[in-house]
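Usage example:
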Amino acid sequence: MSSAMFDLILKATLDTLYMVGISGVISALLGIPLGVLLYVTRPRQVLANPALNGVLGIITNIGRSVPFIILMVAIIPFTRMLVGSSIGTNAASVPLTIAAIPFIARLVEGALNEVSPGLVEAAQSMGATPWQIITRVLLPEARGGIFTALTVTAVTLISYSAMAGAVGGGGLGDLGIRYGYNRFNPTIMLITVVILVVMVQLFQSLGDYLVRKSDHK
Amino acid sequence: MARMIELHNVSKTYESKKGAPVEALKATSLHVPKGQIHGVIGLSGAGKSTLIRCVNLLERPTTGTVTVDSQELTQLSRDALNKARHGIGMIFQHFNLLTSRTVSANVALPLELMGMRRSEIQQRITPLLELVGLAGKANQYPAQLSGGQKQRVAIARALASQPKVLLCDEATSALDPQTTGSILELLQDINRKLGLTILLITHEMEVVKTICHRVSLISDGVLVEDAEVGDFFTAPRTQLGREFLNDFLELEPPRALIERLEEHPRANTHPVVRLAFSGDAVSTPLVSRLARDCSVDVSILQAKVESIQERTLGLMIAELMGSEADTQKALDYLQQHDLTVEVLGHVQRDV
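Running the assembly step on the lines above writes:
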């Protein structure tokens, strides 16, 4: 393998990590609160609000039902407004983030649903405010489930980022398509796939470790 | 004595989407004086859980007022209610400890919620863990503890904010009899040491018998009976009260006898009676007196003596054998001596 080829693969790997990292962090920062909101506004929850819950639920479902490849193209004007360009890794990170937010939110909502309602009730009996219940009871108790949610999201982002080539986003998927498929270079194809597999394994192992560490049940 | 908990005409109706609304608790009034342990006993679904959850407004009553420590909770704002709740501890059937926190961090939770400083919290926790006998377990997680130990942590947590009232929602129902005993002992200890007022709900007569001063019986959302524990165990006034007592004492006539019981006396039958006696009557030699004074032979089918706190309760199921006039005389004699006499039926003389 030539050093040019090596540089190409290295750059693609870093691009993928960059896209997954940026979109992962931002979508976690926005998706976790959305998931909390989806949960606490449910009927009989600490901030029960059926109307808000209904609206958030519909928005989340829309976000989750649009195929990623369509989402990516459809929000190009928004992407351009946000990062000043519609191509490149930054531009690709926007649709990745948008797609991951509702994904994380639903998973976080599910993780919170696993917290025993008795704990919320106990906190209420101690005079906890809704904010205290969220920050001191729900989130810490659901920590393992939330790490699982983030791990699943990271892995999904790795595979979604492979489509980023469609908007000139670069990354391993793009490399695989352009060199491996279009130029019929099976070596490149194989290498990109192997790197993606290893990346997923590493993310999964890290996630599993964090889940184990936070589980005292 | 000053009233610590005061429920006035409290009712709770649940609206259900399908079908008619459910009235879980009908207009109920209940007063618990300061320093007393008051038990509410009832079958599942009778409304006892709703009742206790109305006291700290985990359930907001549909009607009525709730007053705790002279503060009417039902008219407080959300913030004021949260403050008032610091003065009302609560423990639960399934302990409800945070699995993500250690024992000491669980006990610290209510203090953190009150905004107490970390250094101050630490000083509060150690004596609490000593009080409940878990001084060595501070850094363990709840999952590493037994059920009884978990409930002890929950008690320490409930006491952390130095409340005046402790609510116990079936606190021993998930525990084995021995552990139940030790938890009840702890609650009694706390009641005496700290002068804490305790309201507990349970379906176990054993709990009422062991620690309660006063007991209310709840059925279908209504408090049907309210009595000192000694009175309740010697002479319950309602049919449900008698059923609870009989189940608890396991004092039923032998099955073979029940089958032979007839409702009305005939020639050649004699009465089978259930006698309950307390106080002086316990130490009176009744059986020999019946034989001597009324010429009635007494065949004891079952008997037991129970200590209900400071009182002694005797129970007996017996056949009174004699002529109709003599047995009637015996029954009158027993009633005169403050025994509770219940004629269960009549059996034919030895078949």
